[in-house]
Write a structure and sequence with these properties.
This protein has one helix at 64-69, and strands spanning 16-22, 27-37, 43-51, 58-63. By secondary structure, it is mainly beta. Strands 1-2-3-4 form a four-stranded antiparallel beta sheet. A hairpin with a 6-residue loop joins β3 (43-51) and β4 (58-63).
């Protein structure tokens, strides 16, 4: 932990992992969002998704250029 104000919890996050489970719809999915460098050292958003317990799903890489174009990168004029 850091010297954060009382009531505020800060942590180093490796990735964001989300689960969506709805037994009525037979839906058991996970989504993972991560920031990682590409082969050229530029930062990218990596999105992965699949069915929990199933075969591999999809992976998408979003470069900072793409994220700035869609105003999803900090300082890109949202």
């Amino acid at each position: 932990m850091t010297d954060a104000p009382p009531g505020l919890r800060l942590a180093i996050v490796d990735a964001i992992l989300l689960h969506r489970i709805d037994p009525a719809k037979n839906m058991h999915r996970f989504y993972r969002l991560d920031i990682a460098p590409d082969l050229f050292g530029r930062w990218c958003l990596v999105a992965e998704w699949a069915r929990i317990g199933g075969a591999a799903g999809g992976v998408a890489l979003f470069s900072t250029t793409w994220l700035k174009r869609w105003r999803l990168w900090p300082g890109s004029g949202a």
